[in-house]
Amino acid sequence: MRSINPAAFPPHRAPPHPVVSLPTRVARASGAVAAALPGLAVLISARQGAAP
Fold first, then answer.
1. In the structure, how many helices (H) and strands (E) does the chain have?
2. Domain count across the chain
3. Tens digits of per-residue pLDDT, 3-16?
4. Best label site of 5, 12, 40, 52, fewest CB within 10 Å?
5. Cβ–Cβ under 8 Å, residues 20 and 1
6. Domain boundaries, position 36
7. Which top-level group of life is the source organism from (predicted)?
8. Residue 16 domain-assigned?
């Protein structure tokens, strides 16, 4: 891993969290979406079932 030079970021522009690689962020996001899909499907089907 490349070390981040603290001097490259002025104090007010410091990253709020450790820099995470893009693939890791994408994997986490897709994992969260996959975890939310079943609940979303239940919500949608319940809504469609309640619709006249």
1. 1, 0
2. 1
3. 666 666 556 655 56
4. 52
5. no
6. 6-49
7. Eukaryota
8. yes
